[in-house]
Amino acid sequence: MSRVRVDDLHKKWLKDAEYQREYAELEEEFSLVSALIAARTRAGLTQEEVAQRMKTTQAVIARLEGGE
Questions:
Q1: pLDDT exceeding 70 applies to what percent of the chain?
Q2: What's the pTM?
């Protein structure tokens, strides 16, 4: 049994107009999440360190970075 890669599924699904539309609507959210992760990485901080500075938990930061 071979494994299916998410990237391959995404490419396949992008051929579907409804999927394409829904994915495009999430672009702003994807960009924000990407910017958050990039900023944390550039600063050399862990999720735990960011959480401490924001007076929250690492789990909250993980959810933010996960797009939730």
A1: 100
A2: 0.67
